[in-house]
Every structure is written in C-alpha cells, then in structure tokens.
Amino acid sequence: MSDIRDNPYLAHMHGGAEAAGGARGSEPNKAFAALVPGKTTAAQQEATEDSDCSGLTGRAFSQKYKSILAKRRELPVNKQRQKFLDLVHSNQFVVLVGETGSGKTTQIPQYMVLDMLPHVEGKMIACTQPRRVAATSVAQRVADEMDVKLGQEVGYSIRFEDCTSARTVLKYCTDGMLLREAMSDNMLSRYSAVILDEAHERTLNTDVLMSLMKNIAAQRLDIKIVVMSATLDSEKFQKYFNDAPLLTVPGRTYPVEIYYTPEPEADYLEAAIKTALQIHASEPEGDILLFLTGEEEIEEACRLLRARGDDLIRRANCGPLLVVPLYSTLPPAMQQKIFSKAPEPRTKGGAPGRKIVVSTNVAETSLTIDGIVYVVDPGFAKQKVYNPRVRVESLLVSPISRAAAQQRAGRAGRTRPGKCFRLYTEKSFNSDLIEQTYPEILRSNLGSIVLQLKKLGINDLVHLDLMDPCAPEVLMRALELLHYLGALDDDANLTPLGLAISEFPIDPQLAKMVVSAADYGCTNEALSIAAMLSVPNVFLRPREAQRAADMAKAEFAHMDGDHMTLLNVYHAFKSCADPTQWCWDNFLQYRSLKSADSIREQLRRIAANNEIPLVSNDFNSPDYYPQIRKALTAGFFMQVAHLERNGQYLTVKDNQLVLLHPSSVLERKPEWVAYNEFALTKRHYIRTVTEVKPEWLLDIAPHYYDLESFPPCEGKRILEKIALRNTIFREEQDMKKRRKDKKDRKDREGKDKKDKKDKDKKVKKDKEKRHRSKD
Ligand SMILES: Nc1ncnc2c1ncn2[C@@H]1O[C@H](COP(=O)(O)OP(=O)(O)O)[C@@H](O)[C@H]1O
Ligand SMILES: [Mg+2]
C-alpha cells in the first residue's frame, strides 16, 4: 500500500508527523526557498530535489519522480555537479565534454535552473539541439524528471511548433529557433543562460550561434554559456571561447567488439536487415540499433524486419521482436516508443524478446537508448552538400566519418559489453572514411543565414568571428541570391522587401513568393503552397498499392504542374468532411497535411503582421492560375530549367542537365519550368515543377535575365527573341504614342487657334453690340 503521506489531498491527516519529520506532503520546499541565485552548491540542489514537493510548482512530487530521481543520481554528470557549479560561478563560458548517455542534455540544464532560479530572476534557461526530434524528446523526458507537464515549466520550441508557456523556465529548442529569436531580441535578453548542446555536430546554425553568443557575452556580463558535446576537439572550443575552462565527465562505457564485412556490400539495406535478423537468431539477449539514412528507407526496413522476423519466430522458435523506427518527422508519441522495453518471451522460459531500433543519425549522439547491445552500422548518413558553382544544395547519402563510426559503435557498450557490425571492410574504414565530417558552414547554401545576420545588424560578414570561416565563394553566392531577390540593395544593405522576407522562417525564395503574391492578387494561394512545401511529402505510395496510389494522386493533378497540384490537395483537404478517412482513401499523409494547415496559419499571421494584404483573385477568371504562377516566378526565377531541342532540360545560367522527377504530375514537357528542389542522386532531378512563361521571366526578373551576362544556350536564344520582340513591340508602342501625341498637340493647337478666333469674334461682336445700344 502506498504511504498516505504521499497524497497531498490527505495532508491534513498527518499534520503532526510532518512537524516532527520535516517537510512532507504539501509543506513548501524549504531547501528550494533557501537557494541563492548564482551561489548554489550541489548539496543544496540535491536537498531541494530530495524534498517532498516541487519548489517550482508547489505540488508534491510523484512516485514516478522519485524513481527517476534515483536513476538520475547514478548518472556520471551528477558526480561532477559541484565541480560544474564552481566553474559556472567563476566563468562566463564553460566547455563540457562527456560520453553519450552521461546525462549532459537532461541534467545540466536542470542544474542551471536550480542555480539561476529563472522563476525568481525572470530570465529563462535555453538548451539548443541541432535536431528537432532531440529537442522534443528530451524536453518530454526532462518534464517527467522535474515532475511537470510538458509545455509548462519545461517546454520546447522548434520551427512551426512552440510548446512553451508563460510559466516556462527551461526551454529546449533547435539552434535555428534561438537564432531566429535573436533577430527580434538581439541580446537574447529573455535568457540568463544558454546551453549549446551537441556542439561537435558543427551545424551551420550552431556555428553562427556560437559567434553570436560570444558577441552577446561581451556585452552582457550576466549571461552564462555552456558548450556541451560528446566528442569534441575541446581545445579548439576552449580557445574560441576566450580560453574557457573544460570539464570532462568520465564516461561509463564497456568494451565493444567490432566486426567488419570481408567484402564490400552491394546493397547495404539488404545486408543490414540480414545482419539484424542474424543477431536476433544467434546472439544472446540485448537490443539492436540499426543506423539508416532517412524516413523512407527506415520504414521500408521496419516493414521487412517485421515480416521476416515473424517468419523467423515461427520457423526457428526465436523470441518476439519489437521493431521501432526513429526519424525527425515522426510524431512525438511514436518517438517515445524507442524507450519501450523489449517484449517478454512468448511463453515462460521461452526465447527472450528483442527490440530493434531503426534510426537516422539522431541516435548517434543526440538520443540515448538504454539496453542497446548490438549496433549495425552500414556507414552512411544523409548529409548536406552545396556546390556554389552551380548553386545546388542537396541532401546526399554519403559515407560517414571515422569519428561518427566510433560514436555509433559506442552505442553498443552503454550497459554491458557489446558488438558493432560494420557493413564495410576494415580497409575501407581506414582508407575511405574521412577523419571528421566537415562543418556544415563549409557545405551549405548561406542565403537564409546571411539574411538573418543582416537582420541582426551584422554587416561585415567576412570578418564575422566564426570558428571556421565560410568559403568566400559561398558567401558571395548568398549575397548574390539575396541581391537578385531584391532583399539587399546595391550596397548589400537590407531593403524593406528583404526585411519582410526575413520575417518568414522559410527559404528566402519561398518567402519572396509569398511577399510578392500580393502584387498578383494571390497571397492566400501562395501561403497554401508555401505551407505545403514546408512539410514532408504528402503523397503516400505504399509498395503493395502503387497503382492505386498513383491513380488517387492523378485526381489532384493540375495541368500546370506540381505546385498547383499541391494547392488542389490542400483545398480538397480543407473542404472534406472527415479528414482522417479522406486522407486514408486518397493515399495522403494526414500528419503532413495537418501540419501544413498549422504552418499556413502561422505564415498567415506573419503576413498579416507585416501588413501584406491577404487576397485571392476570382476563381473563375482565366488569370487565376497564371497569377499564382507569376508569384511563384517572382520567388523562383533563379530555379528555372529550359527544355532543349534534344528533349533534355538545362537549368538556366548554370546549364546543368536535369530530368523531371518521376513523381511530377507533368505528363508533357513544358518548355520552361520553375522547380522547387534539385535532387542529387545518381541522376540529377528537378522536383516539384511548374510551367512558367519566358516573358514572365524577362518581366519579373529583368536584372537576373539580363541577357548580356547569360551563358550561351538554346534558352538564351529564345529569351533574346522574346526580348527583341518586346523591344520592337515597345518601340512600336512608343512610336504610336509619339504619333498620337503629335496629333493631339496639333489638334489642341488647332482648337486653341479656333477658340481664340471665336473669342476675338465674340469680343468684336460685343463691342459692336454695345456701340449700337449706345446709339
Ligand atoms: N526519454 C527517456 N526515457 C528514459 N530514459 C531516458 C530518456 N532520455 C534520457 N534517458 C536516460 O537519461 C540518461 C542521460 O541521457 P542524456 O542526458 O541525454 O545524456 P547525454 O546528453 O550525456 O548523452 C540516459 O542514459 C538514459 O538512461
Ligand atoms: Mg545529449
């Protein structure tokens, strides 16, 4: 039976015991009340955690809280709590390095809350994560650890999703979100401490944020900055942060045996599934973590593992399997499944069950899953690559680095000795994999970030204090893009249009489309398209029902192309009676559409706040769709391809040979198309494509389609013809106008003369009249 003293509603029944036995039940947390901001000790902090009720909420701690607390105390970082607090008290920057799973992400922010007392001081603690899924998942865990409801005292903020409230004292957010917040609050004045987690990932946003934090810290001596990572070139970070002190948390790891394949694997997915099932069939108890590259691949692997696993269980009498996927677009409830226990044996004493987690890179360091004993590492991850020469940024499945492979292997040795199966040869590990992945700033399109920095008032981008400076060519491309979009003027200063574009948390091209749509009377439609382009693919195409799925999609197809098709889908979604059923029937991803709807509302609010008129043209007008496509052109005129006579598309100016992606609804090949994405796989594809008119290009973006600076190609010759036609047409118009003006002038002169004559005549007549009357 549970102790009635644990029930706050029965507090009146044991008042006497309380007085004698110290704080119990709803007695306020005295230890908490005694904390002095910026001066707490580990013992004081632990005392408040050991109390019976929360200092933050005033509520009695639950049983669950207490059982988690016992586990938290065992974490390696807890042993370093005093050392950490000492360092934070005497330094503005602290660098902290600790093995994955040592408790950095979940514990350090809580120590900061107890030390800085944000609810008293009125300033929050922020902890940044490079990945959305890590931010949401860890926030949930820490809310549980602190015994509060997610979104109240502990919350998260990721793009298009804010789960915080006025009560929030600790916020987990993506690095991109904090950067965006800095645009409106340059000194991040709402925060007393910022914890930059997973710094070793060196994402573009983390790098820029680090430089920003350095700048802010120089002006705000009250702010504390903690930089955390699993593996880190710690000296480089310490030096960068003005010789910050380093705290190393010794990890708790077990040896991991590494196995390589003797020969390279032709099909890593197939090899991965085979390996995982082999482990299940022949290795002792312990869960499996399999690294793959993205949602589609992961779902496919899960499906195959379940099907073949069932077979294995039946034929070989293996234990039951729990197969769980993990990737960034998975809804939160599904994400939490990775923490479920392996299934029980089917019969008492039967073969033990096993959990297989199939995950993207997020399980490499961001999320720690206990109970993993076996790791299957095919050696690939999706990575951003950018080629400034042809201005193409793409997510590409690429080999991981040796450092990443080591991290992955380490996941197997968290609770006991484990095994890691690398699906590549040892030779390949030693000679093909690079030592460290290059920081993202060296392989990204910087358009969006440069715009944000401009908004922050940082004009001198070349001398920005970055850990690794960005490549001049990449920076130049970003400035050029923003200049063409009209976001920057000739002196590279932010224009009013640029300011409006920067308000939207989407790519500058997409934001330009929304902002310009007002000129074409179609902001409502542009907002819907922008929202639909900001969510994962809405069209489902299950392997066993591809034809049916294609037929369902064809119902929405618009002859102008994919953007208009997305618009059709969104409108149909908004007007159907039972959205879940309707999506199911039409092979559409309900989750994505629902999220598009919420994103649209957020974009709409931003547009309204920026006084962008929310308008639509008459749906029955023949101009309805052309106007929307013109707005699209206003944003995407730099992403246009021309169909050459040989039947192939060539991107304008960059002359890259591309194919329409097979997913496009376009059955014919329009001569000119604007595209949303350049997909770099074995072949070059352009994805999400809509027909545009060459005369619009000349009209809407004459500075970009300045034919003098155009490399020779068929498209150029056509544009030249149109430009010539335009010139002749304009000259003809001018001539006509001049003729008309001349005629008008003559007519007017003639009329003036006549008027004068008439007037003179009248005066003469009047004179004569007066004379006569005198007579
Ligand atoms: N959602 C969760 N459910 C259960 N346990 C969790 C969860 N998240 C974290 N943990 C536990 O907390 C420990 C510390 O995790 P974390 O703070 O993320 O470590 P680090 O950031 O150092 O890698 C993990 O080893 C795990 O035992
Ligand atoms: Mg962590």
Task: Give the topology.
Layout: H1 15-21, H2 30-33, H3 42-50, H4 63-74, H5 76-79, H6 81-90, E1 93-98, H7 104-116, H8 118-121, E2 124-129, H9 132-145, E3 154-158, E4 161-163, E5 170-174, H10 175-184, E6 191-196, H11 204-219, E7 224-229, H12 234-240, E8 246-249, E9 256-260, H13 268-282, E10 287-291, H14 295-316, E11 321-326, H15 332-335, E12 354-359, E13 372-377, E14 380-387, E15 392-399, H16 402-410, E16 418-422, H17 426-431, H18 447-455, H19 472-485, H20 496-502, H21 508-517, H22 523-532, H23 546-554, H24 562-575, H25 579-585, H26 590-609, H27 624-636, E17 640-643, E18 649-651, E19 657-660, E20 672-680, E21 684-691, H28 694-700, H29 714-774
Parallel strand pairs: 1-7, 1-8, 2-5, 2-6, 3-5, 6-7, 9-16, 10-12, 10-13, 11-12, 13-16, 19-21
Antiparallel strand pairs: 3-4, 14-15, 17-18, 17-20, 18-19, 20-21
Commentary on this structure:
With 775 residues, the protein is α/β, with parallel strands linked by helices. Helix content is 45%, strand content 15%. The strands form four sheets. The protein has an eight-stranded mixed beta sheet, sandwiched between helices. The protein has a six-stranded parallel beta sheet with strand order 9-16-13-10-12-11, sandwiched between helices. A five-stranded mixed beta barrel has the order 17-18-19-21-20. A hairpin with a 3-residue loop joins strand 20 (672-680) and strand 21 (684-691). The termini are far apart. Mean pLDDT is 92; it is low at 1-5 and 7-25. The structure holds adenosine-5'-diphosphate and magnesium ion.
